[in-house]
Each structure stands twice: as structure tokens, then as C-alpha cells.
Amino acid sequence: MTVSGRRSSTFTRLLRHGFTDPSAAERFLGLSDMASVRSDPVLLDALGAVADPDLALRALVRLVEAQPSAGRQSLLDTLITAKPLRDRLLGVLGASEALGDHLARHPRDWQTLVTYEAADLHPGVADFERGLADATDTVSLRVAYRRCLLSIAARDVCGTTDVAQTAAELADLATATLRAALAIARSSAPGDAAQCRLAVIAMGKCGGHELNYVSDVDVIFVGEPANDADESKAVQAATRLASHLMRICSETTVEGTIWPVDANLRPEGRNGPLVRTVSSHVAYYQRWAKTWEFQALLKARPVAGDPGLGEDYIEAVSPMVWQAAERENFVPDVQKMRRRVVDNIPAAQIERELKLGPGGLRDVEFAVQLLQLVHGRSDATLHSGTTLEALRALAAGGYVGRADAAQMDAAYRFLRAMEHRIQLYRLRRTHLVPEAESDLRRLGRSLGLRTDPVAELNKEWKRHAAVVRRLHEKLFYRPLLDAVAQLTPGETRLSPKAAGQRLEALGYADPAAALRHLEALSSGVTRKAAIQRTLLPVLLGWFADSADPDAGLLGFRKVSDALGKTPWYLRLLRDEGAAAENLARVLSAGRLAPDLLLRAPEAVALLGDPEGLRPRGREHLEQEILAAVGRADTPEGAVAAARGVRRRELFRTAAADLIGSYGTEESPAEADPGALVDRVGSAVTDLNAATIAGALRAAVREQWGDELPTRFAVIGMGRFGGHEQSYGSDADVLFVHEPREGVDEQEATRAANTVVTEMRRLLQLPTTDPPLLIDADLRPEGKSGPMVRTLASYEAYYRRWSLVWESQALLRAEPMAGDLELGRRFIDLIDPLRYPAEGLGEDAVREIRRLKARMESERLPRGADPTLHAKLGRGGLSDVEWTVQLLQMRHGWAEPGLRTTRTREALRAAHAAGLIDTEDAQILDEAWVLATRVRNGVMLVRGRPGDTFPSDGRELAAVGRYLGYGPGVTGREVHMGHSGDMLDDYRRMTRRARAVVEVLFYGA
Fold first, then answer.
1. Whole-angstrom distance, CA of residue 125 vs CA of residue 355
2. In the prediction, which pLDDT does 976 show?
3. Strand bridging mode 301-305 / 788-790
4. What ranges make up the beta strands (E) of 297-443?
5. Which of 68, 167, 844, 957 is most exposed by smallest CB count within 10 Å?
């Protein structure tokens, strides 16, 4: 019982000291080698203080067992009596399984942790070079490297050094290692060494003096002839030395590897020569280098080889680094790099990605580097390759707010500390936060979180990531507001010139105007100005992410001027997370939506309601419009109210389309462009139908009260009848009437014509609301025929005179307003014409093909590019629609699914009926959707309809953004990369569609 009691007591003590497997710990402590220390409270207390007591005890037992017999007690005695050693050794063993393995293989290396002198606290490159001095080959170099790494990790886990100092020591150790590796390479090839001067330039985190425990060491090699050697032979000799250096560090041996040496940041990347002369580097950077290459050079630092040559290289390339912000496409290039990084993260990992995910380390580094490149042109204090040093310099110079810089510094340090401890465990290169409970517990404890390590770790991690996400844009934009608001006297702030440079670099074409808008919005001490200063840093970032930041900021000022005194406006933007971003997207995406909004700014409220962007159905719209018409005193007032509803709903539809196309921080862009097209087409069609119904009611009520002397119906045709209208579409219609019982036909016809004339007048009255044009040219006899016919007249005409093109046009006919029963009877009348029994005859098919060929040759506007005209061009809307309509007329009599006015629905039905194969149906559908979206995009961007891509570069880029292509404009130049991709993709898709049309329509 006594033994059991003692064991129970030990078990409890182990639990209390943080062991998760006390039984295993008891067994380890019970080993004979541990007899002298098993009951020593000093050991248990020390183990309880480390990140993973179980891991530390297991590794300690292995280390003791690996000692020679005479050395075991010496190790244990020193461990108990020397606190510095105890803290260092057990701290390392509890944080790093890999270094525990190293000590088990090299049991004497624990003695490197015994010394505790002032010089030992912060070693430099020379100290590490002495530590590696005895290494003569790859194996001994790895052992010596791990021994040095052991001392760095010991200082790190004990808190002797902070995360920045640890990263600097790791970079210094890498420098010493590269020098040792180069010495080994030179000694093995003295002939090559004699022919050349070779300099190793550190890049990336090594160059920035902020290296991780396990990371690729990025380098660039520079070579020159030595002793009047031939340049070509000297470069070849330098290349052999450089290649050998890389192998020495990267190869896997019995002692593992050190780290890969990565030279892919060199000119031309992996396709370029490994070694170049200084002049060759300069020639490349002057002519061919991309923005990211200058951004990478921010951290360039000579670390090994010929120091004079290294300095020559830095002196030659540095001026180009600080001129990079003046290059075309500077900011879009930087933004594109960041997006590409995020886009390449697997979806399952993005929430665990410490480096590249949202709110991760790369966000801080990109923000700091971008600001350095923008302002470092005129301020040499910003020329630091180290992220935290550069951040301090940016704050000191007033380029970022001091409070924001302090928060970003703290967040970056915490995230880097997490990254260090994750990598230290197994000395593996990873930036993923582990998922296992035990790993999270060890990680949390290693960072000093002891009460509930896992919960505290997740809380702190998310908090710091949120800080980074929040401050990422504020770093750019908050100082701009401080520069114009000038609320804090004496604080260092951006000069007007620096503020203008920053706005220009971020994509604003007119920085002076932008600064005036910012001053008007944010100056003063009112509550309104204070809220604006909170909102604007984020809004400015969203504007800069668009094709026209200037228009976005101007629109925001106009809306704010109109609504600034209403109590709900700024509160909506501040408190409803989606409203501000939605407004920024809408204001900066083109002209149509802002124009609609500025005519009635209170529609901003729609952007904060989760249901606010959902289209309203025709029945609901018709009820609202008819109720408004009923309240009006005059026909003009009635239709003005109806057009006001139409304007609001057009804004709702356009805003939903833009936000769905762009996506937001909370919800990604709509993945199915066809769904966006269908929503717009249905919403605009329903809205126009309800508006026409309101105009009809107003026209009738003025002269006849509640009942017209004749039944009257409006039949939708073309895109109106097909539910495929765009923002600027006219309403193609037919008017049909039938005299009421006892009413003379001439009187009925006069009444119907009067109603039509009045409807068209009312809907086109000049007002601030967009007009709705009614086009009746598809009626029998076209413009020469009567505007309105009776049902009997239509029947007589179609029976005697109807042409095949009229039957084709009737495929889109659908009742839209007026007498529903009369509309239904009209449809019954035309069904045999549009879906003829037994299908079309060959003569009719030939006539349709002839008409289509004539239209292609005659109706395409002069000078238009037939490969880019969305309506009449190759593989465009006309090609797809005529092909589908021919299938409907040939097979609609036998296939009920083809009896629809909608193009995509008919195409699906044709595929289901086996009339078109899967691939061809998909090609036609994608081409039709793309061409429709191009037309929608042109209207949204330009504010007026168009069937071709805009010629203006900024407008073209805006259409590209709407279609899902990345940013393509800076304040100075248009970036044609994305726009060029868009035009190429359009041509490719429509070319494939035309090939299908040639077979299905023309029978090729």
C-alpha cells in the first residue's frame, strides 16, 4: 500500500507539472540511470516549465543513455546544479524533437550549452564561423551547423533573445555556413577558384536578416574574372563553384541536410545562367526585369565570397530598386503577386496558413515593402531589408501611423514566434499551424500560454491575424487622412508630395483631386468627420482594387454630401460590415450604378440589408407600381412614380450583379457566370414588364377610367419576351386588341392607338430617370404596318402573308402586360407558325440561312472587328440564337421542351432531346453567356449600351474586372496583360462557338 501511495503521489505531481502521460514519465524516472535525480524537485520543476515535459524527459533519458558510463553522472550533476544549463537544455529538449535526436547522436554536444558568458548571449557571424571552422566536408559541416543551431534555439526558448534577434542569429549562421561551404568548394577545385571572383548575395529572409529555423536560403551569384582570366571561362568556373556550394548545403547525407540553397530569384529564374557578371545583371534589370524582381532586391545583401565584388553589385543595382515605383504597372504587379500567392493556397489549408493566408506574415511584408518602394525614392532611412526595422523607419518618417505600426510590429512578432516554434519541433519547413491537440498544446506552452494553452493560442493567433487584416489597408491610407485632416499638431505626417506619390502608386490618376476629396470628407472635429476617418482607410483600399479608384472616391464624396446629415447613413456603413464594401464596389465599377444611385442616394440602404440585393418578382413590382399609379393625380405623375421604382430596381439589379461579379471579403465572386446573366435578364425583364403595366394603367385611366373600350395586351418580343434583357435594352413589343362586346371596331382601334401613343410618350418623357423605349418594329409589315391590330387582323395576316423571318421572331413572343386572356389567345394563334407541324421545309431552312448570311455581311457596323462584336460578330449572340431558333422551328412540334422563349432553356432542351451533343451545347452556352456579360459589362462601365469592347484602356480594364480578370490600371498607364488575356479568351471561345454554328446552322 505504501508503494502504491507513493506512486499515486508521483503520478499526481507529474500531472501537476504538465505531463500528459504520467505513467510513461514514471517509467522513465524509474530507470536506473535516473536514480540520482528522480526525486529531485529541481528537475521536476524545470521539466514542468518547458513546452512539452513528456518530450523533454524522453529526450533527456536518451541523452543520458548515449553518454559514456563515466559521463552520465557528470551530465546529471551539472543539470541539477547549473540553472543556466538546466533551462537551456531542457527548454530545447521540450521544444524540438529534432535537436533531441541530434544530441542523442552526438552526446557530447550538450556541453556547448554550459557556457554562459556575455559574449555568448548575442553571437555574430564571426562567432558562428569559429563554430564551423573545423568542418571539412558535408557531414562535418552539418554536425557543426546543428551544434550552432542548438545554442540559438536554447537562447530562443529561454527568452534570452527575442524573435527578431533569433531571426538575425539564424541569418548570421546561414552567412557563416555559406562561407564555410564556399571554402569547401574552393578547396576541392583550386583551379576554378584561381580563375574567378565569386560573390554570394543573400536574398529573401536571409538577406533581410530575418531567417526562419528551416527555410530555403535565397541567393544570387555574381562572378567576375580574376587575374586577367578570360571572362567566359571565369564565369564557367564560378558556375561550377556555385553549383558545388549549393550541393554542399542541400544534399541529404547521413546527418541529413542543412537547407536548400535557392537561386531562382536570379535574372530569368531557373532558365537563366546561375552566375552572371555585374554588367550582365545591370543590363537585365535595366531592360527586362519585372516589378517583383526589384521588390526582391530590397533584401539583397553580400554575405560570402569576394566582399568587394558583392559591394559593387549592390552599388550597381540599388538605384534601380528605388526607381521601381516609377515603372509602369508597379502597383498592379505587386497586387497580382499577392493574389497569386493566396490563390495558390489549397482551400483546405488557407485557414491554417500562417505565412501566406489572410492576416498572415506575407501581408505585413508586402505592405511594408510596397511602402518602402513608394517612399524610399526620396527617403534613404527606409532602405532596410529587415521588415521590423523598415516598419519602425516608416513610422518615424510619418509614412504610417505610430499606433498602427506598433500593433503591426506586435502582431508580426507573435506570428513569427509561432512560425519559429512550429518549425523548431522537427526542423521541417512548414508554415501550417498544426491540427493535433498535442501539437497545439506544445506550441501554446512554448509561447508562454500555460492556463489553457490550446484555447489561448487560438485566441491570440486569431486576434493578431485580425489585427494584420485590419491594418493591412490602414498602413497605406490612414497617413493620407492624417496629412489632410491635421488633427494632431506636432505629429510627423506625410508631405503633400509624398501623399500624392502614394495615391498615384496605389492607382489614383488624379492624386490632387483625391486629396481634396479626402480633406472635404475627413477634416474637422465633428462626429461625421470622425466616422469618415474610420471608414476611409478601408474604403480607399477597396477603391484602389477597382479599375477606377478616382471615380469611386468622387462618387463616395457625392453620396456622402447628399446623405451626410441623415442619421442612418454613416451608421449603416460603420456598423453593417457588408454595406461599406458593397458601396465601394458599386461606386468604382463604372458609371451606370453610381448614376442611378446619385439620383436617389437613399438607395444606399439596400446595400446593408442581406435581402436588399435580391431581385423582387414581377408580381410584387407590379403591385407597387400600380399602387403608385393609383395615388398619382396626373398620367405624368403616375409614370414618374413608376419610373422611380424602375430606377431603384435597376440600381438593385446592377449592384447585385457587380458585387456578385467582384465578390467581397466575406463571400467569393459568383462561380457561375450563367447564373448572373439569368438573374439580370429576369430581373430587368420583370421590371420593364411591371413598368409598362403601370404606364398602361396611367394611359387608360386618364381618358377611360378603369376600363378601355377594347381588350388590350402587350406582347413581349426579342430579348423582352425571352427574359434576356440587359440594362439598356429597348422593349420589343407587339400590341394586340379586341373590341369589347358592343363596341365599334373603329372606335376600339382608335382607343388602342391612343393608349399606345400615350404609353410611349409617358415612358420617354425627359426626366432624371432612365427612359424605357418601346420598339414595335417586329409587327406585321414592320414600320409600314399599323401599330395596333386586332387578334382577328393578326390571324388574317399570318394566314396569308407571314414570312419565315416573322415566324422566327414569334419564337420569343410572350404576353407581358394587359389582358392576360387575350395574350394567351394570341399565343395559341401563333404556336402553329413558330412550331410548324412536321418542322420546317427545306425551302424555309434555306431562307433562314440566306437571311442570316445577309445580316452578317450588311448589319455589322463599318470598322467593327467581327471577332469582338458581341451581337453580330463571329460566335456571338446572333450566331448562337439563330442556331437555337432553327432547332426550335425544326423540332419544336415534336419536343415540348423546345417551346420556350429563353435561349439557354431551349439549348438545354435540344441537348436533352439528343439534337446537340454535350460538348457543342456547352460551347454555345458559354459563348452566349460571355457575349451577354460583355454587353452588360459595357453598359455598367460606360453608362450607355454597346456591343463591342471599349477602346478606352481604363474602361476596357473595368469590363475585364467585371468579367473576373484582375486589376489592370494604374494612375499613369493601362496594364494590357489582363485586358489582352480577356480579348484572347473571348476570341478563342467565340471561334469555337462559330465552328459549332457552321455545322448545326449552315450544315457545313
1. 27
2. 41
3. unpaired
4. 301-305
5. 68
Is 971 within 8 Å of 511 (Cβ atoms)? yes
pLDDT in tens, 873-927: 999 999 999 999 999 999 999 999 999 999 999 999 999 999 999 999 999 999 9
CA distance 340 to 506: 18
Per cent of the chain over pLDDT 90 is 68
Q: At what angle do helices 53-66 and 22-29 cross, to 10 degrees?
A: 20
How many Å apart are CA 645 and CA 616, to the nearest integer?
A: 11
Which of 119-123, 505-509, 650-654 tops mean pLDDT? 650-654
Q: For residue 460, with 0-12 CB atoms within 10 Å meaning exposed, 13-18 middle and 19 or more buried, which class applies?
A: middle
Question: What residue type is assigned to position 409 of the chain?
Answer: D
In which band, very low, low, confident or very high, does the pLDDT at 977 lie, cut at 50, 70 and 90? Answer: very low
Strand, coil or helix: 974: strand
User: Taking Cα atoms as reference points, which of 203, 246, 195, 242 lies closest to residue 221?
Assistant: 242
Residue range 618-643: average pLDDT?
A: 93
Alpha-carbon gap, residue 298 to 384, rounded angstroms: 7
Contact by Cβ (8 Å): 755, 712: yes
Task: Give the burial string for 44-67 (b: 16+ CB within 10 Å, else e).
Answer: bebbbbbbbbbbbbbbbbbbbebb
- If DSSP codes are grouped into helix, strand and coil, which group holds residue 948? strand
Rounded (5°) CA angle 264-268-273: 80
Average pLDDT, the chain: 90
Q: Rounded to whole angstroms, what are the CA distances from 385 to 209, 269, 382, 450, 556? A: 7, 21, 9, 35, 38
Secondary structure class of 715 (helix, strand, coil):
strand
